[in-house]
Amino acid sequence: MNMSSQHSRQPSQLDPFSKTLPPWVTYLGIGFLCIISASIGGIFGYRIHQNTTQDIVATPSEIQTAVQTAEQKKPEIQAQVVSAVFWILPGNQPVCPESHAIKGAFQTSGVSYYYTSDSKQYTRVQPDICFATEEFARDIAGFVKKF
């Protein structure tokens, strides 16, 4: 007997599952797998949901206590009137009053400049803000003097 004749059998003789299954069997198997997967996911999802919601449940008295604690910890806010600054409001003439003669101009480059009456561009600058003292413009507001 020839060896090649032994291996030349039909695939159906070697493997009984090599037959093509009807499409409804394939769909039935896929559907079954989907149902099993959804069931397992639903069970674990429900358990995870139950565990997380139990941690965040609080009674009204616990919530009130937490609010009171937070209110006690917040810092006191104190507003102070700053008389060294005069803001030019939108729509108003960009003119600094005599009491705040130092002109401040915001720049898009990020550096803001202030101009004193001895600055070369003082008369041409349209201020965004006016300062009472040069020290306030430089040291407090962080403006740079433009000569």
Defining key terms:
5 strands, 147 residues, 42% helix, alpha+beta
Please characterize this protein's 3D structure:
There is one protein chain. This protein has 147 residues and is α+β, with helices and mostly antiparallel strands. It folds into 2 domains: 11-73; 85-145, no CATH class. The protein has 5 helices and 5 strands, in the order ααααββββαβ. A hairpin with a 7-residue loop joins β2 and β3 (113-115). It is elongated and about 100 Å long. The chain starts with a helix and ends with a strand.
Q: What's the gyration radius in Å?
A: 41 Å
Give me the secondary-structure category. Answer: alpha+beta
Shape type:
elongated
What is the β-strand count? 5
Average pLDDT over all residues: 77
SSE ordering? HHHHEEEEHE
Biggest sheet, open or closed, and with what strands and sense?
A: 5 strands, mixed
Gap between N and C termini? 110 Å
Offer a concise description of the structure.
42% of the residues lie in helices and 10% in strands.
Give the secondary structure arrangement, pairings included.
Layout: H1 3-6, H2 11-14, H3 23-55, H4 60-73, E1 85-87, E2 102-105, E3 113-115, E4 129-131, H5 134-140, E5 144-145
Parallel strand pairs: 3-5
Antiparallel strand pairs: 1-4, 2-3, 2-4
